[in-house]
Amino acid sequence: MRLEDHPLWPSVAALSVPLVPELRLLLLDPTSTVWNATDPEALGWPYWAFAWPGGQALARSLFDSPDLVAGKRVVSFGCGGGIEALAAAKVGAREVLGSDLDPLACEVATRNAVLNGVSLRTTQADLIGHDLDADVLLLGDACYDDALADRVVPWLRTLTGQGVTVLLGDPERVNLRSRLPLERLATVLAPHDGNPSGGTPWPVHVLRVCVDGAETRTVGACPE
Ligand SMILES: C[S@@+](CC[C@H](N)C(=O)[O-])C[C@H]1O[C@@H](n2cnc3c(N)ncnc32)[C@H](O)[C@@H]1O
Question: Ligand 1 atom 21: the closest Cα is on which residue?
Fold first, then answer.
């Protein structure tokens, strides 16, 4: 399906979210009633129409701490509309690849890159289990159910062991803390699901995966 033919498209506009005013993104207008009035499954789960809390928090952290990605080769897994990928590009990542299984997400992320004057490549390939030619892997809200986490967690362990820095924006939809050694870099209050301006904000942890063997934790620094 072309983006222009998607039922949500007429309600999508170029907007900024309060946590990340540096970016303009094609988003479902929060004043639109379409999302609540429609069955998201019937719409093919259009994640690309939202800036998810995990992605917002991760993007905020990248703008606040550009050294995390500046000059580095970055992959954004489950990029959706690309909020954290675009933040990485804006603060000086050497190259950024966004991955999403959904071709419409890749299309929106590409359009958002143009909107923000940055360069972004995308892939629809499922990268889980593959080696990455990258320095940093970003996951903004991309570990959102147990089935996905079961596949992603071993991959993150392997990549971390290979020297890739893995950064997550994690609204704790699943319990990652019991599965991975994690260092908490920040906690950001992000708007509740999907609606950039509405709902009760919830705390989202920005986490870095520690090398295997480190004590599992979400607070404090990784042991050397
Ligand atoms: C909740 S959205 C988050 C989007 C964006 N990172 C953000 O925070 O706004 C999760 C995304 O992960 C994508 N996804 C799920 N499994 C994936 C996989 N194996 N490879 C790539 N993308 C995947 C979905 O299509 C969806 O766009």
Answer: 100
Query: Rg of the Cα trace of the chain?
Result: 16
Q: How far does residue 215's CA lie from ligand 1's centre (Å)?
A: 28
Determine the Cα–Cα distance for residues 97 and 74; give it in Å rounded to an integer. 6
Using left for φ > 0, alpha for ψ between -120 and 50, and beta otherwise, residue 207 falls in: beta
Cα(184) to ligand 1 centroid in Å equals 22
For the chain, the structural domain boundaries read 10-209
Class of domain 10-209: alpha beta
pTM of the model: 0.93
β-pair partners for 160: none
CA–CA separation, 47 and 78 (whole Å): 10
What is the mean pLDDT for each group of 10 consecutive residues in the chain (224 residues)? 89 92 93 70 80 95 98 98 98 98 97 98 98 97 94 97 97 91 94 65 93 58 39
Per-residue tokens: 57: 């928090």
Q: Which atom of ligand 1 is nearest to the CA of 48?
A: 27
